[in-house]
Amino acid sequence: MRHTLFAAVAAMSLMVAGAASAQMVHYTAKLAGTGSGSGDVFAMLDGKTFSYTVNYKGLSGPAVAAHFHDASAPGGDGPPIVPAANAGASPIKGTATLTDAQIADLNAGKVYFNIHTAANPKGEIRGTLAKQ
Q: Is 113 exposed, middle or buried (0-12, 13-18, 19+ CB in 10 A)?
């Protein structure tokens, strides 16, 4: 009886762990643009929690701002939705809670990351996130 209960609990734990990992979605983006810099974005979505790491190098100067933007169409421009708290240093890391609409746009290829510098205030490098 005791072994049967243990086996049932272990099986349920594996099912819950499998279901939780099935919800996690990974995204990546290559950063390039008008400036001299380059970089990569690695992000994951677990439920509504969005976690990200951005590595970059070779900008024309220090990053003065960095954001995830939500465009109205893939490749378009849009307003910032997630500001990066430590935009001046690489790597940039953070988490945010996304809305259902933002998650839908992320999955539709409408969310991009943009790094701004003094020489390129509208954005020096950017990349659209793609589901992996």
A: buried
How does pLDDT run across 75-104, given as a tens digit for each residue?
899 999 999 977 878 999 999 999 999 999
Q: Report how far apart, in Å, the C-alpha atoms of 121 and of each of 34, 37, 46 are.
A: 11, 14, 32
SS3 sequence, the chain?
Answer: CHHHHHHHHHHHHHHHHHHHHHHCEEEEEEEECCCCCEEEEEEEEECCEEEEEEEEECCCCCEEEEEEEECCCCCCCCCEEEECCCCCCCCEEEEEECCHHHHHHHHCCCEEEEEEECCCCCCCEEEECEEC
Structural domains for the chain? 24-131 (2.60.40.200)
Radius of gyration for the chain, computed over Cα atoms and rounded to the nearest angstrom = 19
Question: Which positions ≥6 away from 19 have C-beta within 8 Å?
Answer: none
Residue 64 CB-half CA count within 13 A: 11
Strand bridging mode 111-117 / 125-128: antiparallel
